[in-house]
Amino acid sequence: MFPQKKFWLFGLLLLLLLPVNACSFSSQDTPVKPLITGAIPDQDPEQLQRLYSKLADYLEAELGIPVAYKPVTNYAAAVTAFRVGELDLVWFGGLTGVQARLQVEGAKAIAQRAIDDDFTSVFIANQNSDISPINSINGLDALKGHTFTFGSQSSTSGRLMPQYFLQKAGVTLEEFQGKVGFSGSHDKTIQLVEAGSYEAGVLNSQVWRSRVEQGKVNLKRVKVIWETPEYYDYHWVIHPDVKERYGEDFPQQVQKALLNLDPSNPQHQEILDLFGANKFVPSKGSNYARIEKIARQIGKIK
């Protein structure tokens, strides 16, 4: 009888351990809903897919829940998807982050890159244009009468802040030659100005420097003519509904995971490099009060 009893006890032990090992993402046999991440599509889609796939893997390991990346078609779609609860954690620009938090009560800004405290835009021009480098905001009036493209209509660094600086220089959109363009992304802005489709344009300075370092910009065809003063820009925003699914302290857990990305760890460094970041730091909604004020002045927020 003793061997049979020993076998029975061993079998019981296996049954007790099996649910723990077989369902790491479940609680009481109920699968955990994945955390859905997203981002404004400010760069090449392939670059974004690579970046957010690696980040999803990292967050999944750190948080102990399934994490998935869901691409969107444009900036406005990212805000809408967050508003209706299709995205839980989104990498927004300054303007889209403000729009999202105004539309979702309880949404919080939790992290940003260290460089987002003092972000800038660069105005660029085709080398064959007669546009020379300028030294101050007032020099932007030299763009009058030229063709010009912004990035996305809802981009902070590719539209909102550049338009604000143009207005300070007394330049209205009607004073450009023809209708101003909206390329849709920073990479596309470079391509259009480089090709001569527009004589000048404006984009995120971090993307510009990254593409130059990667050898993806033909500096014989396009040049920087001015870099703007600094402003706050990109940040992570988390949806309040995650507290119901994962616990009241879940936003703090996500923030900690982002802040723990360590450049001394090669895998973490790869993620940080893809973000153009040295590290992530805490953020808060009040950082973007100026962005909201300017957006209301320009009519992007009513």
Q: What's a concise summary of this model?
A:
This protein is an alpha/beta fold. It has helices spanning 2-22, 45-63, 75-83, 94-103, 156-168, 186-195, 205-213, 242-246, 250-259, 266-275, 289-298, and strands at 26-27, 30-31, 35-39, 67-69, 89-92, 108-113, 121-126, 148-150, 181-182, 200-204, 222-227, 235-238, 280-282. It folds into two domains: 13-17 and 24-117 and 233-298, D-Maltodextrin-Binding Protein, domain 2 (3-Layer(aba) Sandwich); 120-227, Periplasmic binding protein-like II (D-Maltodextrin-Binding Protein, domain 2, 3-Layer(aba) Sandwich).
* Count of DSSP-assigned helices: 11
> Pairing-aware structural class of the strands and helices?
alpha/beta
Shape: globular
Strand neighbour order, sheet with most strands: 4-3-5-12-6-13
**Low-pLDDT regions:** 1-27
Give a verbal description of the structure.
This protein is α/β, with parallel strands linked by helices. The chain folds into two domains: 13-17 and 24-117 and 233-298, D-Maltodextrin-Binding Protein, domain 2, CATH 3.40.190; 120-227, 3-Layer(aba) Sandwich (D-Maltodextrin-Binding Protein, domain 2). Helix content is 42%, strand content 17%. The strands form three sheets. The chain has a six-stranded mixed beta sheet with strand order 4-3-5-12-6-13, sandwiched between helices. The chain has a five-stranded mixed beta sheet with strand order 9-8-10-7-11. A two-stranded antiparallel sheet has the order 1-2. Helix 2 packs across helix 10 (266-275), helix 3 (75-83) packs parallel to helix 4 and helix 4 (94-103) crosses helix 11. It is globular, with a radius of gyration of 24 Å. The model is unreliable at 1-27 (pLDDT under 50).
